[in-house]
Amino acid sequence: MSAEPRINDRIRVPEVRLVGPSGEQVGIVPLAKALELAQEYDLDLVEVAATARPPVCKLMDYGKFKYESAMKAREARKNQAHTVIKEMKLRPKIDPHDYDTKKGHVVRFLKQGDKVKITIMFRGREQSRPELGYRLLQRLAEDVADLGFVESNPKQDGRNMIMVLGPHKKKTEAMAEARQAQEARKADAKANPGKSQNAAESDYVEDESEAEVEAQVETPAEAPAEA
Prior knowledge:
- By secondary structure, the protein is α/β, with parallel strands linked by helices.
- The protein is built from six helices and eight strands, in the order ββαββαβαβαββαα.
- The protein has helices at 31-41, 62-79, 96-111, 130-143, 171-191, 193-217, and strands at residues 15-19, 25-30, 44-49, 56-60, 85-90, 115-121, 148-157, 160-167.
- Strand 1 and strand 2 form a beta hairpin.
- The longest helix has 25 residues, at 193-217.
- It is elongated and about 85 Å long.
- Keywords: Cytoplasm, Initiation factor, Protein biosynthesis.
- IF-3 binds to the 30S ribosomal subunit and shifts the equilibrium between 70S ribosomes and their 50S and 30S subunits in favor of the free subunits, thus enhancing the availability of 30S subunits on which protein synthesis initiation begins.
- Residues 84-167 form the Translation initiation factor 3 C-terminal domain.
């Protein structure tokens, strides 16, 4: 069935409960009278409650109503927060530099309001030392405790050990802060036009670098663990 309400000549009932253009109650009137009033006001007669007896109809500019409804829906989708589960893979004997790099990505994900699935991958004889992975996960959780919490405790899954970190900050808050930071950068660039070109080039390099990093370390949360 169509979600569109019936309007004007498509309404097929003998009488309707009519609501005026300003929301005032006109009362129950014959359909012909309601259509006559719609034409007089240069508006549409729109059925807003088809199951009522008699159906409720309102005088309105239906084209304008549809446009405003579409804009509201678009704005709601724009502000809708989708929590994403990122994944970071580590080895139990990771070197300090790699650990700091991976931790930096986890910090960035949590700041963005996303969950992070941490996977420790064991190979060969490492599988007999699960405590190495457990200690590494505990260390990481402690290092980012100001940004996130352990949502799912470490657990063995075949040759992997998995832990999920949840952000303290809600996704909507992270999105709002990101928008504010972007607006602040734009305002600064406008006030200091001489710096805008260098800033734009710097942002481009940074964004390109981050995109490359995410392509390397992020996988869908439900993807099978790496062997």
